[in-house]
Amino acid sequence: MTAMASLRPSHFLWRMDGAVAIIQLNRPERKNPLTFESYAELRDTFRHLRDAEDIRAVVFLPNGGNFCSGGDVHEIIGPLVAMRMKELLAFTRMTGDLIKAMLHCGKPIVAAIDGVAAGAGAIIAMASDLRIATPEAQTAFLFNRVGLAGCDMGACAMLPRIIGQGRAAELLYTGRAMTAQEGERWGFFNKIVARDALEQEALALAGRIASGPAFANGITKTQLVAEWSMSLDQAIEAEAQAQAICMQTEDFERAYRAFVAKQKPAFEGN
Questions:
Q1: Which residues, listed in sequence order, are joined to residue 140 by a DSSP beta bridge?
Q2: What tens digit of pLDDT does each residue of 186-201 get?
Q3: Total domain count for the chain?
Q4: What is the CATH number of the domain that holds 93?
Q5: Torsion of CA 152, 224, 207, 37, to 10 degrees
Q6: How many CB atoms lie within 10 A of CB 256?
Q7: Residues 228, 198: one domain?
């Protein structure tokens, strides 16, 4: 197991609030675009999170009034135009690997969306477990608007599951921005809060999750992803096995003893 509280990334901001890790992209003057380097560092960070025993939840916060404007036009889009197929495929696989790392990190992720969440920024929000937005949030899967397919970084697999096939198709075919109000109505956002309350709400939600049974929450996240490709019979059996594993944990025993004593359980994740 590893501890990540002392992480010092080069391409984004990182801090801890108890057992909650907080990430902010740090180019607010350009609405926080991603670069080749920040993609790779985020991917590696989420891969390491799986074994981080000091982190129980993650929050993605906006910075300077915006979440993320996607790939940097000058530092990513421009160079991609000059690349050959082998290099292009290496890049698209790397961006997909970031999403895989988020899905398999074992830690629930809360995305707090303000202002622009476009392209890869919208995908990061989509790949998070829970999403909170401000009324000013504009989420755009805008790949179509730059001559690319909407099927980027898992969008065609995940977005229809969240908001429905027809709504996802509209956003992916047109590249138009989804408003915060649409996102809440369609189930993309869990709630909308005022801009000055966004960070507090996101941290409170992540803190509530972090205070729960960390091992069991990791199992829940694993099953939420794994059961996409299972039949109902397979899913029920997988959940039976997963729950039997959780019943062997000390957290389960603690919860029982706390219930008998009419106390609130204190989960330790083991």
A1: 118, 177
A2: 999 999 999 999 999 9
A3: 2
A4: 3.90.226.10
A5: -30
A6: 11
A7: no
Structure tokens at 41: 């560092």
Report d(CA 227, CA 230) in Å as an integer.
5
From 189, 20, 174, 164, select the one nearest 112 (Cα to Cα).
Answer: 189
**Encoded tokens for 6:** 């002392």
What count of residues does the chain have? 270
- The confidence band for 1, taking pLDDT boundaries of 50, 70 and 90, is low
Could you give the residue ranges of the DSSP H alpha helices within 180-249? Answer: 180-186, 198-210, 214-226, 232-246
pLDDT tens-digit series, residues 110-148: 999 999 999 999 999 999 999 999 999 999 999 999 899
* Contact criterion met (CB below 8 Å) for 160 and 188: no
Backbone φ and ψ of 150, nearest 5°: -75, -15
Nearest to 49 by CA among 36, 38, 61, 59: 59
Residue 184: per-residue pLDDT: 98
Site of tokens 């350009």? 30
CA nearest neighbour of 129 among 206, 53, 228, 47: 206
Q: Which domain holds residue 245?
A: 214-260
Distance CA 131, CA 258 (A): 31
Residues 6+ positions from 209 with CB-CB distance below 8 Å: 56, 57, 108, 110, 217
**Strands, E assignment, the chain:** 12-17, 20-25, 57-61, 109-113, 116-118, 130-133, 138-140, 177-179, 191-192
Q: Output the CA–CA distances (angstroms, integers) from residue 253 to 89, 243, 262, 263, in the order listed.
A: 48, 13, 14, 13
Whole-prediction pTM? 0.95
Residue 4 counted as domain residue: no
